[in-house]
Design a protein that fits this description.
single chain, 217 residues, alpha+beta, Aspartate Aminotransferase, domain 2, Aspartate Aminotransferase, domain 1, 2 domains, four-stranded antiparallel β-sheet, three-stranded mixed β-sheet, 7 helices, 9 strands, 16% strand
């Protein structure tokens, strides 16, 4: 069975689940501008039929006696108890919002922003962009010589720039790249090239400050 974690791609690209050839695709709502605590598991009928209930509650049972319990048909038997209908409505609204903006247009614009970010970040002294994929979707991860990503992100947070630092839930990949921690810039369709230029200037400024402080020790 092939299970695909689609959390990072669902907002940054157009995905045709039927063409992927996977058994299951899972994604989270908060990556798609919905709230937290909601997501979706998609799958082929045969693959979903293989799943046994893991939680138990109302609406998932067909009949309950002292001797026997029968389950409802999909999807009810996998959705125990009162559903998170507030989260589901919010996820639906987020999907409608993204579709109204245009999924293809969002993907194209974010690709421009990411390519711009690669260009301006690449000019910073000692900065190394992680990996060299044929296509980047939604983010640019990097390290800077003699600068810890956490220190960098903490400093520029005070300047109004929000980056992610750490292993970003991808430790095997970072091990393969020869590092344990990166900083991550994640342009979105509501950002501009001007904001990315500002972020790059603050990254450069913070890196120089941290290197200077290190040299004084």
């Amino acid at each position: 069975l092939f299970v695909l974690d689609g959390a990072q791609i669902m907002r940054h690209g157009v995905v045709d689940i039927a063409d992927l050839g996977v058994d299951y695709l899972a994604f989270s709502g908060h990556k798609m501008m919905a709230g937290t605590g909601i997501g979706a598991l998609c799958g082929t009928r045969d693959a979903l039929e293989m799943l046994a209930p893991r939680d138990f509650g109302g609406e998932m049972v067909g009949k309950v006696t002292q001797a026997l319990t029968t389950w409802e048909e999909l999807p009810l038997r996998l959705e125990a108890g009162t559903p998170n209908y507030v989260g589901a409505i919010a996820l639906g609204a987020a999907c409608d919002y993204l579709c109204a903006l245009g999924r293809e247009e969002i993907a194209a614009y974010e690709s421009e922003l990411v390519n711009h970010a690669v260009g301006v970040l690449g000019k910073i002294e000692g900065l190394h962009i992680a990996g060299s994929p044929r296509e980047r979707a939604g983010l640019v991860s990097f390290t800077i010589d003699d600068v810890h990503p956490l220190d960098l992100c903490t400093l520029i947070d005070a300047r109004g720039v929000a980056l992610r630092s750490g292993h970003n839930c991808a430790q095997p990949v970072l091990d393969w790249l020869g590092t344990s921690s990166v900083a991550r810039l994640s342009p979105a369709f509501y950002n501009t090239t001007v904001e990315i230029d500002f972020a790059a200037s603050q990254i450069d400024r913070a890196a120089q400050m941290l290197r200077a402080a290190r040299s004084r020790k």
